[in-house]
Amino acid sequence: MTEQPLIFRNIAVMRRAVAQWRAAGEAVALIPTMGALHAGHISLIKASRENARRAIVSIFVNPTQFAPNEDFSAYPRTFEADLAKLAEAGCDGCFAPMASEMYPEGFSTKILPGGPALAGLEDRFRPDHFAGMAQVVAKLLNQSQADCAFFGEKDFQQLAVIRRMAADLDIPTAIFGVPTLREPDGLAMSSRNVYLSAQERAQAVTLSRVLRDSAKAIRAGAPVVDVVARAGREITAAGFALDYFEARQAQSLAPIAGLAEGPIRLLVAARLGRTRLIDNWPVE
């Protein structure tokens, strides 16, 4: 019988477990999530095993990173199914707090990230997102006292913001990015993929294909500005409402003109029906 992970509903109980593991000489990894777990999340648990003996997955749909017009209430919540997946993956603990545990009465502190949080990518379309995300991730890192934390590269700007925040605030947790896990046809795994109709799901693979082809063209010497313009036209022609397709310096997320300023990361966000998809690809 697969052993269920320990379920922590409050910070004190989680910290006691972490202290016991540490006393036994076991490093602890944190994998922050909002639930609706898929194979991409499970890949983060597997990746954590290279650096830590114990793994805690947090499941918390964080209200402060959703704008009023976004899908907070509709965000998929599948806690029992998530627990089954965590058990199968051998996860040691699940931190699943109530909102009152994360934001008790009187809570009034905010984090206002700069640098990569103001790169003109996701922040153009979700102006409050990174402040709320940085707030909850800083809290989770502090609450868990984890030695290391693992995040998927699919949310590439988010990962850059977290790395900058951890460095700026002297948070000792080591931050690791894990390559995006993809469906067999190349679509990046995402909890929001369940919103796609059958026709939209068939169209959605366009994003990863255009990213891959664009990276290949830049490596072959095509001008970055021309490749980016062509990619935008192709995505729009495939039926998407394009938010952005950008080539950026992979560490700073600053605009980039060519390979000499690299490494380059291509980033895209586009809407298909009611679903907003993001993805990215390295130019290596």
TrEMBL record:
Q: Keyword Protease on this protein?
A: no
A Pfam family cross-referenced in the UniProt record is Pantoate_ligase
Name the CDD domains on file.
PanC
Q: Which InterPro entries match?
A: Pantoate_ligase, Pantoate_ligase_C, Rossmann-like_a/b/a_fold
Q: Which reaction does it catalyse?
A: (R)-pantoate + beta-alanine + ATP = (R)-pantothenate + AMP + diphosphate + H(+)
Q: In which pathway does it act?
A: Cofactor biosynthesis; (R)-pantothenate biosynthesis; (R)-pantothenate from (R)-pantoate and beta-alanine: step 1/1
Residues noted as binding beta-alanine in the record, renumbered to the chain: 65
Segments spanning the bilayer are none
Protein keywords: ATP-binding, Cytoplasm, Ligase, Nucleotide-binding, Pantothenate biosynthesis
Query: EC?
Result: 6.3.2.1
Where does the record say this protein resides?
Cytoplasm
Ligand binding ((R)-pantoate): 65, 158
UniProt binding sites for ATP? 34-41, 152-155, 181, 189-192
Question: Which Gene Ontology molecular function entries are recorded, alphabetically?
Answer: ligase activity
Catalytic residues identified in the record: 41 (proton donor)
Q: Which family does it belong to?
A: Belongs to the pantothenate synthetase family.
- Assembly with partners or alone: Homodimer.
Stored NCBIfam families:
panC
Share any extra remarks. The reaction proceeds by a bi uni uni bi ping pong mechanism.
Q: What does this protein do?
A: Catalyzes the condensation of pantoate with beta-alanine in an ATP-dependent reaction via a pantoyl-adenylate intermediate.
Name of the protein: Pantothenate synthetase
Give the organism the record lists.
Candidatus Rhodoblastus alkanivorans
Annotated gene:
panC
